[in-house]
Amino acid sequence: MKNESNKKENNNATYASIRVKDLTKKNITKVLEKANKSDDCGKVTVDILISHLIEQISQEDIHRLQLKSTTWEHEDRRLRNLWEKKKGKVSESKWKEMLYIGQLKAFINQNSRLKVM
What we know:
The protein is mostly helical.
């Protein structure tokens, strides 16, 4: 029988799979191997590990995670909004023109959250 939600029930608990990259899975496995090296405690599972990390995450950690997922598409919108708050509204074509001819280089270097080469 096919289970479309990809969830299993076991001992009154519902389990769901989470998609992660192979490298992430490999790193999680390494951490679990270290945690489960000793046999004087119960087994540390992926669920226990993730629950612990969620409980320990700070607002600063969340901010760093958000920055890791930021792309130039996101940054373009944010920088344009910042520019418009400081300098006034600009049309899409004028914004692109200023980007292409390098007029915004200093502004982007000062305000971008992404590294500019």
